[in-house]
Amino acid sequence: MTTIGSLGDLHPMMALAFELKKRGHLTTIVTTEFYRSKIEEAGLRFRPIRPNMSPEEPGLLAKVMDLKKGPEFIIREIFMPNLRDMYEDLKAAAADADFIVSGELVFATSILAEQKNIRWAMAVLQPTSLMSSYDPSVIAPLPVTKYLHNAPVLFHKLLFKIGQLVGRSWVKPIAELRAELGLKEVDDPLFRDKFSPHLNLVMFSKLIGTPQPDWPRLSVQTGFAFYDRDANGQSNPRDVDRFIDGGEPPIIFTLGSAAVRDAGDFYEESIKAAISMNKRAMLLVGDNLIKQKLPESIAAFEYAPFSEIFPRAACVVHQGGIGTTAQVLRAGVPQLVMPYGLDQPDNAARVVRLGVARSIPRKKYSAALAEKALT
């Protein structure tokens, strides 16, 4: 099982790995070195894969989450220059594999599987990965697409064609590596040809996306797969439970595991909003330092498992990552989404259409707008 990304990418794979392990299968998680301790301490086998990127690298998350340039930066500057290293690492890790389950950013999987004749499945975690013209996504670099969801299917097919043309120039190293290995060229390695000919696991709920005519063949919609323990598998620290149980349900403010490293003034504005509304609030801040003294009604914690705290919240304010969004939907509480980039604007639009959320663009997020949306 291989994936590269944030905890939102890793946790569904860990959930699946644990279930397979229960059923007697020997599973290995192949991902970046950054997650080694988390995986091994959870009792799963780990193998490293390059690029050896860390979300703690200064400035990386700001580039990845850039609304307009994020997708291009990830593919052209991170993954394509490291494609051969990725291939060699996966080849070593999968030497005795019977089957591979792959996240979509592990571009070497389809190449290795075809060359070595290994059956494999693609894990699709969010609707944007499917790029359906029948259920179109908000495209982060084109914010206007937020208002074009109900445009004719033909329009979205033409827009997708343009995206294919642009994206083809991003992934030339895939064609080069395939040629070196004696594999035939594929037409659309970034979009349609990235999927598996054996099985595609659509790992999101039908609440935010239902099967469409242009989904890949052999797609099975499984719904979300949940896992959110820390590296030691621990539950909430006592002070987390003590705060939540100490009064009315708090508003929880979080930026997930990735965007939290590029928080900007999110926490400062959120604190102002909570104080102005006279509401209890819990901040999940990661490594960020909250410089101001907080009133007793507001508490800041580095991390807590979402599955244990979201059901006890009055509302969750978050960045719109698919893992966080899934946990809020599961908890059944209202949400306010401040999306960054990548799939997050689309995830936000989908829960807004579902009637369970409101959304504020990141650049407009302020105490005043947050208070207005939350009241």
Write up what this structure looks like.
The chain is of the alpha/beta class. The protein has two domains: 7-221, Glycogen Phosphorylase B (Rossmann fold), CATH 3.40.50.2000; 238-374, Rossmann fold. Helix content is 36%, strand content 13%. Helix 5 crosses helix 6 (108-116) and helix 10 (266-277) packs across helix 14 (367-374). It is globular. The mean pLDDT is 95.
Q: What is the CATH H-level superfamily of the largest domain?
A: Glycogen Phosphorylase B
Low-confidence sequence ranges = none
CATH architecture of the largest domain: 3-Layer(aba) Sandwich
Topology pattern, helix = H, strand = E: HEHEHHHEHEHHEEHEHEEHEHEHEH
Task: Indicate the structural class.
Answer: alpha/beta
Could you report the average pLDDT, rounded to the nearest whole number? Answer: 95
The number of helical segments is 14
CA-CA gap between termini: 43 Å
Could you name the CATH class of the largest domain? Alpha Beta
Count of extended strands: 12
How helix-rich are the residues, as a percent range?
25-40%
Q: Please tell me what the overall shape is.
A: globular
Instruction: Work out the radius of gyration.
Output: 21 Å
Largest sheet: 6 strands, parallel
In what order do the strands lie side by side in the largest sheet? 9-8-7-10-11-12
The proportion of residues in beta strands is 5-15%
Question: CATH fold name of the largest domain, please?
Answer: Rossmann fold
* Tally of structural domains: 2
